[in-house]
Each structure stands twice: as structure tokens, then as C-alpha cells.
Amino acid sequence: MKEQILQNLRNAIVECDIDQAIKASQAVLSAGISPLEAIQQGASKGLDIIGERFSAGEAYLPELILAGDAMKAVFDVLAKALAKEGKSKNAILGKVVIGTVSGDLHDIGKNIVGALLAVNGFEVYDIGIDVEPKTFVKKATELGASIIASSTLLTTSMPYQQDVVQYLEDSGQRDKYYYIVGGGPVTAEWARQIKADGHGYTATDAVEVCKRLAQSGQTPGTFEPIILEYYQG
Length: 233
Ligand code: B12
What we know:
233 residues; alpha/beta; Methyltransferase, Methionine Synthase (B12-binding Domains), Chain A, domain 1; Rossmann fold; 12% strand; binds cobalamin
């Protein structure tokens, strides 16, 4: 039954069918399936299929837009239940500023990461999409955050993730903020190359990386980055 529900969720996204996406999300809740698992193993897989079709010239921009809208509908239904999955509701583990870098309007993954960090004890400030490198740092200063997280889905925007490090260095603040990077094309190699402090492939990884950084006591920018791939706990 669980497999069938996850498959329905995946198909609803592939078919860009918002009504079916909402129904399948409600079925996730009724069946007591983990909302995070439903997002990562169901709905996101649908987006991957649409993405592959887009690359192959078998789907076009309208499908990307509609599939994105269907995914947002899923997230709206599951967000409350996601909050209940949170493990440390009382303690504040740290403040995180999160955004999508310049030139990039993709926000679904970033929103999932932000929501999951928030329900796991972090105070999260989402500064949106198409965010300039220096704005990440300025907001972190303004809000007293200790972690900066940037997301990108576009290879053409990846250099802006590096520019955040450059800005931190140029402004003499590299030792003040842990900096983590993620998003579809972002790899461990890239994170090391740009001297980020952490990287994860999934929202679950992002939470664990932030926890380890917040508890590490190490000076940002002075250690091997914490890299996680599909952390299982
Ligand atoms: C939906 C979608 C859109 C929607 C976005 C809607 C929205 N509000 O976000 C719209 C229609 C706007 C769109 C537009 C475009 N898109 Co688009 N889009 C997609 C699609 C199908 C899904 C993206 C998605 O949401 N995935 C699901 C989420 C949950 O996954 P995720 O973002 O990777 O996030 C997870 C992890 O990466 C991680 N994570 C994310 N952020 C962070 C941050 C940190 C710090 C950490 C640790 C982890 C982490 O956790 C998340 C949850 O596990 C992808 C294909 C794909 N499979 O990714 C193409 C894709 C990203 N798009 C693509 C392209 C080319 C475009 C356009 C240029 C198309 C065009 N010709 O106009 C425009 C660009 C617009 C712009 N300037 O940004 C390409 C990018 C190619 C590349 N690598 O550069 C892709 C890969 C499609 C493809 N196969 O060609 N797109």
C-alpha cells in the first residue's frame, strides 16, 4: 500500500495534476507514511522524471512550471505533519540563513531544507531566491546567524556559491560563519573546491551537517568540510 501511495504521488507530479497530488498527499497522511519519505521518495522522484524528459526534449517549460506547482501543493499538505517529525522542539541549535543564489529561481528544495531545519531545532531565516552573494553574509550578520546555507539547481549559478566564500574572505569574516552548499548539481567535490564547510545531498543530510557544525566548536573555514550523502541516522 505504501509503495502504491508513493507511486501515485510520483505519477501525480509527472502528470502535473494538482488535484491528484493533493489527494495522494492526503493518502500519505491517512496511511501514516512519513511526510519526508513521501516528499523524497515519492514527489521528488516525479520531478526527477520531468527533469529528465525536459533534458531529452520530451517536456517543455510549461510542464516544469506545472510540475513545480503540483510539488508545492504536496508540500502545503505535508508541511504540518513534517513539523511533527521534528526531533528537538525546544532547544535552539543555531540560527541559519538560507537562500537560493543569484540567477536561480528554484526554491522547492531550499524550502524543504529550511522546513526540516526549522522542525529540528534551528531558527531559520529564508532570504528567498536569486540572492546576491553579499546579501547572504549581510543577512547573517544582521540576524546573528552562525550558519549560511545556499542552494542552487543551475550549473550556471554555481559560481555564485563560490562568491559567497570569496565575499566572506574579502570582508574578513570567513571565521565567523559556517557555510554549507547544496542543490541538484552540487557535489562533494564542488563543496571542497570552493572551501565550503559542509554539503549534503538531501534535506536530511542538511540537518545532520548543520547539527555537526553547530556542535563542532571549530573555527569556520579551517577544517575538512562535513559531507553527507543520504544520511540515515
Ligand atoms: C520544478 C523545476 C523548475 C521550476 C521551479 C519551480 C520552483 N518554484 O522551484 C521552474 C519552472 C521555475 C524551472 C525553471 C527553470 N529550470 Co528547472 N527544474 C525543475 C525540476 C523539474 C525540479 C526541481 C526541484 O524542485 N526538484 C526537487 C527538489 C526537492 O530537489 P532539489 O532542489 O535538488 O533539493 C534537494 C537536494 O538537492 C537538497 N538541497 C537543496 N538545496 C539545498 C541546500 C543545501 C545547503 C543542502 C545541504 C541541500 C540542499 O535537499 C533537497 C531535498 O532533498 C528540475 C529537474 C530536477 N530533477 O531537479 C529542473 C531543472 C533544475 N531546471 C532546469 C532548467 C534548465 C530550468 C530553466 C533554465 C528552464 C528554462 N529554459 O527557462 C529555468 C531556470 C529559471 C531560473 N532562472 O531559475 C535544469 C537545470 C540544468 C542545470 N543543471 O543547470 C533542470 C535540472 C532540468 C533539466 N534536467 O534540464 N524549473
